Amino acid sequence: MNDIFEGLAAALGLIVALDPDLIEISARSLQVSLTALVIACALAIPLGTWLAVQRFRHRRTVIAVLNALMGLPPVVVGLIVYILLSRSGPFGVLGLLFTPTAMAIAQVIIITPLIASITHQAMRDLWADYHDLLISLNTTKWQRVRTLIVDGRRNLLTAALAGFGRAIGEVGAIMIVGGNIDHATRVLTTAIALETGKGDFALALGLGFVLIALALLVNIAIHALSRTESEGRW
Amino acid sequence: MVGLLPLTLTAATVRRRGKRLLGPLDLTLDQGGLTVIIGPNGSGKTTLLRVMHGIERLSSGTAQWSLPPAEARQQQAYVFQSPTMLRRSVLQNLRYPLDLLGHPRAEASARAADWADRIGLGQALDRPATRLSGGERQKLALARALIREPQVLFLDEPCANLDGRATRDIETLLLAVRATGTRIVMATHDMGQARRLADDGVFLRGGMVHDSNRAPSFFDAPKTPELASFLKGDIVE
Q1: How many domains does chain B have?
Q2: Could you give the percent of chain A with pLDDT greater than 90?
Q3: Is residue B96 part of a domain?
Q4: Chain A residue whose CA is closest to B99
Q5: Can you spell out the DSSP letters for A22-50?
Q6: Which residue range forms the structural domain that includes residue B195?
Q7: Do the domain assignments include residue B109?
Q8: Which residues contact residue A156 at a Cβ distance below 8 angstroms, ignoring those fewer than 6 apart?
């Protein structure tokens, strides 16, 4: 129990002192995960919506695979991205390994299926509601997808936040492709793993509380921006 | 404007899961007027309307407009029994069909506001459509269907569950629309409404056209005993 209080004290100390290292790694955490989130949303939201609207032969299989990929082990994703980006790998020439870009790529792979799957679930219900009207109005496939995305944006927020939550808290993949290099690729989660390994529980816990606070702040900020709770429920 | 009518159904049949829902049925829809489709529950009224509109797949037979199917659909509108409200404001619901066709924003908004006035929702442009009452929803759905100025309008029980005033508002609107030459086809359970509005009537029973005639003979001198007893309010299956 004592360790936890020491951790809280350490966290407060770091925040009050505006510890430059803390600010640097927190900012990098946000930068990597938000970049991954934006890219993953751009891919997953149209994909999930399209899967709700379009009927084709192997649709069920695709959706089952997508749901299975939600449980993709980050370590394995990290390993595969590592192999692809390493000097001898197909994308080695780009020199991306051990950069924040590589970490964002790994996180995109991890959270895209999650966001796509939640999007699909939400859009399926909305589509059942809108189906007859949009067919009757002679809409194109693209108009249907756009209408669903616009009108289902609040559900999409949930999908995006779930994706962000998974990305910001993820350690396995970014540890492997980022390498936890100080002042280059160290983020909150990898720093926590490092401090725990070194036995500095107070600092590790302090970083942990900062991470939780950060995740909460981003959630609240996004909710406030989109005014989910204050406006009428759609 | 290129004429859309007549619509000719030839041996149109709809089967779902081995059950015959409609037909085989031959029917021609000519220019002008308001056709009322009546019949007991499950007699195929909704299926017939959807077949005409082209949103229900035919198992066999044909439904032929005098235009190619895609163009024909563009000239029609359909109001569903439980109208779908887009999760948007009243104004955005009304202008949505115009937005789809790429009308300029200002023009679409102006036309939508004009229609909102006509259905008594002029003060509620920014209200979420999902919060409207049943009658307001029905009127909004009707206005949204009419905003593209369709040649043919299908209505599936537009006044189910509505009180007298809302029903009268909708009927007034329908008569005004008919006067502009729009062809209206409407399914209803309300015999009083059928008598008030119909130029001709179709009586469906078991997925088949059992009786049809011009009004008022359709109501006053039914050709079949089943229609006679249905109009009297007896239970016909």
Answers
A1: 1
A2: 66
A3: no
A4: A143
A5: HHHHHHHHHHHHHHHHHHHHHHHHHHHHH
A6: 7-85+132-232
A7: no
A8: A41, A45, A119, A122, A149
User: Do A136 and B96 lie within an 8 Å CB cutoff?
Assistant: no
Q: How far apart are CA B10 and CA B29, in angstroms?
A: 12
Asked if A137 and B100 come within 8 Å (Cβ–Cβ), the reply is yes
Q: What confidence score (pLDDT) does residue A228 get?
A: 56
The residues in A 123-152 lying below 8 A from B, measured between CB atoms, are 129-130, 132-133, 135-139, 143, 147, 151-152
Nearest by CB to residue B55, choosing from A132, A143, A152, is: A132
> Which structural domains are found in chain A, ordered by start?
2-224 (1.10.3720.10)
Read off the amino acid at residue A70.
M
How far is Cα B27 from Cα B9, in angstroms, rounded to an integer? 5
Angle at CA B104, nearest 5°, toward B100 and B107? 105
Provide the CATH number for the domain around residue B191. Answer: 3.40.50.300
**Is B77 in contact with A147 (Cβ distance < 8 A)?**
no
DSSP-based helix, strand, coil % in chain B, nearest 5: 40, 25, 35
- Give me the residues of chain B with pLDDT under 50, please: none
Output the average pLDDT for chain A: 90
Beta-carbon contacts of residue B113 (< 8 Å; ≥ 6 apart): B91, B94, B122, B125
Question: Which pLDDT tens digit goes with each residue over A122-132?
Answer: 999 999 999 99
Give the C-alpha distances (Å, rounded to integers) separating B123 from A52, B137, B172.
36, 15, 20
Q: Using alpha carbons only, give the angle B88, B93, B96 rounded to the nearest 5 degrees.
A: 115
Nearest one of B229, B198, B214 to B40, comparing CA atoms: B229
In a domain, B139, yes or no: yes
Single-letter code of the amino acid located at B168: R
H-state helical runs in chain A: 2-16, 20-53, 59-69, 74-85, 100-136, 141-151, 153-168, 172-178, 188-198, 201-226
pLDDT, tens digit, for every residue of B113-147?
Answer: 999 998 888 888 889 998 888 888 999 999 999 99
Q: What are the structure tokens assigned to B14, written together?
A: 């709809």
Distance from CA of B223 to the nearest CA of A (A): 35
* d(C-alpha B183, C-alpha B149), whole Å: 11
Beta bridge partners of B153: B77, B184
Q: Cα Rg for chain B, rounded, in angstroms?
A: 18
Q: CB–CB of B87 and A151 under 8 A?
A: yes
Is A221 touching B (CB cutoff 8 A)? no
- Which of B84, B96, B128 has the CB atom closest to A234's CB atom? B128
Token digits of residue A67: 């749901």
pLDDT band for position A227 (cuts 50, 70, 90)? low
Domain assignment of residue B126, yes or no: no
